[in-house]
Design a protein that fits this description.
heterodimer; A: about 0% strand; B: mainly alpha; Methane Monooxygenase Hydroxylase, Chain G, domain 1; flat
Chain lengths: ~325, ~140
């Protein structure tokens, strides 16, 4: 693809990602409504999709308030960090064989780096607010994200071992015969859990935990700055779904349909799965969450690495004999 | 690697576009937002209760421990990353080397867990009184 084409695609991608995240706020409420036997927002426009526009207008006209007792610069900076980091993460996702903004041989590391940057947003937001609830929420989420990040990268190493590359396009190409969700089922499981915890979605939304911390790290936030935290969270959800599609479900690969459509279909199915998780699983207690991370998921990830290594080398040896 | 350099500037345009978008969002809400000042507008929100004392409270030491463990185990992942990308070239020798490495870390993790460093809320470390209800569970280890 020409460079001008890549630039155009990049701008379209930003629009699609932000628009997708906005529509997802409505879509999630509708889906949850269906699963919980109620309607959800259905008043504005067909199926209630006008709710997205109404919410946006409302948030834009809310008081742009920076608390006088806060650290003003950091308070404004914190919500922007998560949006920027998540949108930059989208740059390395290969949507189709020639459809990407940035193709680097360390694409996977770039993605991991960008998702780790999101922790700054939550921690700084909590610290800068100078509010007890916000501080506790910020600390909790920093500890949670840091704990789950340890095995988030490790859970993907099975995929890297089998491919021999950090390049996301090479990883997709290597799945022509068999999607990695079969040989790397343990890796998929651990990455899924790490991904939910990193984007602090509902079963793991301890940082926000409404009934004990009012709203956690964004207690003092309102209007557009609050919306940016939410935007970052939904962008994170889409990004994680895109990455799971790329790494474990063969990315754009698939028969008959065009590659981009396959990619979008798989990502959409994963997003629905994440919403269903939110509707199905209750929130664990904080110490249970940390125990799950360190005592079960981390050893499981290491076990996956050792098993993958041993089996791959055994099979490779047999092929050469 | 030459094409990597030429294909970098679309990404730079992308970065600038992202920053512009964020700046626009903040700017628009600054211009469009309403202004109001009521009696309690500029007070910290604590569910309607007046705030008492400094918000910079003492925090539980577990958070600090988690941060330290993160540094240790994240360093471990860096070494494993380097091995994973050259997995088939290194073959069995590399695999056994990493196996030893992982075993050492697993021992560290088991030690860490057995000292109660990750037991949230229940203080079982030296110096703290040992809660009676925890003791039967501890003896199983």
């Amino acid at each position: 693809m020409s460079e001008l084409g890549t630039v155009t695609f990049g701008l379209l991608l930003i629009a699609a990602a932000v628009g997708g995240a906005a529509v997802l706020t409505w879509f999630e409420r509708r889906l949850l409504g269906i699963w919980q036997d109620r309607y959800g927002p259905d008043r504005l426009g067909p199926l209630g999709i006008g709710q997205v526009v109404a919410d946006m207008l409302k948030l834009l006209t809310k008081d742009d308030w920076v608390p006088p007792f806060s650290d003003r610069f950091v308070f404004v900076f914190a919500p922007t960090a998560i949006v920027v980091a998540m949108l930059l993460g989208f740059a390395v996702v290969p949507f189709a064989p020639q459809l990407y903004v940035l193709d680097i041989n360390i694409g996977l590391l770039f993605f991991l780096g960008m998702t780790s940057l999101a922790v700054y947003s939550v921690l700084l937001g909590g610290l800068a607010s100078n509010n007890k609830y916000a501080l506790l929420g910020g600390l909790r989420s920093a500890a949670q994200m840091v704990s789950y990040e340890v095995f988030m990268g490790l859970s993907l190493m099975g995929v890297v071992m089998l491919t021999g590359s950090f390049s996301l396009r090479a990883i997709v190409e290597a799945q022509r015969d068999l999607w990695y969700c079969v040989p790397q089922v343990l890796g998929l499981f651990t990455f899924l859990i790490a991904g939910i915890a990193e984007s602090h979605r509902l079963p793991f939304d301890l940082p926000e935990a409404e009934h004990e911390l009012t709203a956690g790290f964004h207690t003092e936030y309102g209007g557009m700055k609050f919306a940016m935290f939410m935007l970052g969270e939904y962008l994170g959800l889409i990004l994680i779904s895109c990455m799971i599609t790329t790494l474990f479900f063969g990315g754009w690969l698939g028969p008959w349909l065009p590659p981009l459509l396959w990619f979008c279909l798989k990502t959409f199915a994963l997003i629905c799965f994440f919403v269903l998780l939110r509707g199905a699983i209750p929130r664990p207690r904080y110490d249970q969450l940390m125990t799950l991370g360190w005592k079960y998921m981390l050893p499981l990830t290491l076990l996956n690495l050792v098993l993958t290594g041993a089996l791959a080398l055994l099979l490779e040896g047999q092929r050469h004999v | 690697m030459t094409d990597a350099v030429t294909s970098l500037w679309p990404f730079l345009v992308y970065v600038v576009a992202v920053l512009l978008l964020v700046a626009t969002m903040l700017g628009l809400s600054f211009v469009l937002g309403q202004r109001r000042a009521n009696r309690a507008t500029n007070m910290p929100f604590e569910s309607g209760v007046l705030s008492v004392g400094s918000p910079q409270i003492h925090i539980a030491v577990e958070f600090y421990l988690v941060a330290i463990f993160f540094v240790i185990f994240d360093l471990e992942t860096v070494f494993i990353f380097a091995w994973a990308v050259a997995f088939f070239e290194l073959g069995w020798e590399g695999f056994i080397a990493v196996l030893v490495f992982i075993a050492i870390l697993a021992v560290a993790l088991v030690y860490e867990l057995s000292t109660g460093a990750l037991d949230w809320g229940v203080k079982t470390r030296a110096g703290a009184p040992r809660p009676e209800s925890r003791q039967p569970q501890e003896e199983q280890h």
